[in-house]
Amino acid sequence: MVEKAIRDLNLKDHRHKFAGTLSGGNKRKLSVAMALIGNPPIILLDEPSAGMDPEARRFMWQVVEKISQRDKKSAVLLTTHSMEEAEALSTKLGIMVRGGIFRCMGSSQHIKNKFGVGYEVEIKVRKSQYHELQDLAHQIGFKFDLQQKVTLQGAIEQCAAAHFEDLILDQIRKNGMGADLASEAEIDAGKAVRLRNLLEYLKSLTYGFSIIRFLTRHFRQVEVLEQCGEFFKLRVPKEGKTIGWLFGQLEHEKKSLGIQEYSVSQTTLEQIF
Predict the structure, then answer these.
(1) Cα(43)–Cα(33) distance, integer angstroms
(2) Which value, to the nearest 10 degrees, does the dihedral of the CA atoms of residues 110, 111, 114, 118 take?
(3) How far is 253 from 215, CA to CA, in rounded Å?
(4) Strand pairing of 118-125 and 231-237?
(5) What ranges do the domains of the chain cover?
(6) What letter would DSSP give residue 14?
(7) Which residue among 112, 182, 187, 248 sits deepest, i.e. has the most Cβ atoms within 10 Å of its Cβ?
(8) Structural fold of domain 2-91
(9) Closest Cα partner for 204 from 154, 257, 250?
(10) Side by side, which strands form the sheet with 223-228?
(11) Treating both helix axes as pointing N-terminal to C-terminal, what angle do 130-140 and 195-216 enclose, rounded to 10 degrees?
(12) Average pLDDT over every residue of 22-41
């Protein structure tokens, strides 16, 4: 049983070390290994993956999932502050407030259906073809090769003169959606950026802003949670609309909005309480 626990928790390289000298993550692995000895009917785990790096955390999840769902020899009662961990491992969830009051209990989907307040929409917009970038360059007034560099400030002024959208140009700053361009210009001695990078940013933000405007026609608020290149993660309130309705709207407008792929999910438990 001891040898099996050491193998299952990947502790072979630490078997001759004192427990007190182990890292925090390996101490947690050792604690879980000790809890597994004898296949007890109930195993209590208090934040078993806290403080671990992502790889070690995933490994610990696999161990817990194997105990509770595949082997089915023991029931696992697990406490965690990570909603991602709770949803990944649990068949039933209970949310506790101030250390003692249970607010709700049920499956993840049941809790989301009952208490969820909105939807998260992940969208990847279509990546522009080379000829599309060339067309955009000519519209703005850039006459040279896309691989050449342009001074960022001068390029922004030229885009503004060509009546390119101010909201998109205003985002080219350190804490904006165009932070990569701002960083590229800061590194370059001439404060320049590659023209192709600028045009790809303009194209992807044009698609992204058209999607946001489309959603604002149906929801009173659209929150941008994350944006990177062609990827946008948005949150909208529920407002009595079903997830199927939202899927249908996006599917109907997919081509006109430049959407390559998308997914919609109900709010995670972190937004419920």
Answers:
(1) 11
(2) -110
(3) 11
(4) antiparallel
(5) 2-91, 120-271
(6) G
(7) 112
(8) Rossmann fold (3.40.50)
(9) 257
(10) 223-228, 231-237, 118-125, 259-266
(11) 90
(12) 88
Q: How far is CA 69 from the centre of its chain?
A: 26
- Rounded Cα distance, 26 and 51, in Å: 11
Local confidence band at 58 (pLDDT 50, 70, 90 cut-offs) = confident
To the nearest whole number, what is the mean pLDDT of the chain? 86
Residues in the chain: 273
Tell me, what's the pLDDT at 272? Answer: 46
With contact defined as beta carbons under 8 Å apart, do 107 and 92 qualify?
yes
Joined tokens for residue 42: 């109930």
Write down the pTM of the prediction: 0.62
The amino acid at residue 212 is I
**Angle CA 130–224–51, to nearest 5:** 105
List, for residues 113-125, the tens digit of each pLDDT value. Answer: 776 678 889 999 9
Helix orientation angle between 152-161 and 179-187, rounded to the nearest 10 degrees: 140
Q: Taking a C-beta distance cutoff of 8 angstroms, is the pair 86, 80 a contact?
A: yes
Tokens of 34: 């000790």
Task: Report whether 20 contacts 26 (CB < 8 A).
Answer: no
Q: Are 37 and 65 in contact (CB under 8 A)?
A: no
192: left (phi > 0), else alpha (psi -120 to 50), else beta? beta
Helix (H, G, I), strand (E, B) or coil at 40: coil
Among 106, 148, 140, 144, smallest CA distance to 272 is for 106
- 145: CB partners within 8 A, 6+ apart: 195
Task: Using DSSP bridges, classify how beta strands 192-194 and 149-151 pair: parallel, antiparallel or unpaired.
Answer: antiparallel
